[in-house]
# Entry
Amino acid sequence: MEHGGSTATCLRPVPSRMLRPMAQPASSDPVQTFREEFRQHLEVFYARLKLAPPYHSVEKAIAQLTASLKAMAPEERMRLASDPVGRWAQYRKAFVDSGLHQKHRGIIAGLAKSGQTGDLPKEYEHFLSAFRS
# Structure
């Protein structure tokens, strides 16, 4: 009997629930790679602050980033791939332009002001600073 293969299919993990390592992008398309990295940064940001991410606004931020990246020349996207400071600037712009900095504003501003932002790496200051302005 050869229907054993279908059983193995049922036992595979659901890909959408697995986190991809940042060092190994799942796509050779730079826009997709930036989108995935941005999504991971947003997941880390909200998880370490112990807040539920505002999912609709997260998707809006990712769409904002995508539009911004697609408006760039391919050479500029390639340059951005080797420029972490430039990438974070794009991520912050999408974060603010999408309105994410307005969600959980009081809570996150209070955490940022009191220095209770958990163990967020220093790069996340790009997001936190939006709550202080």
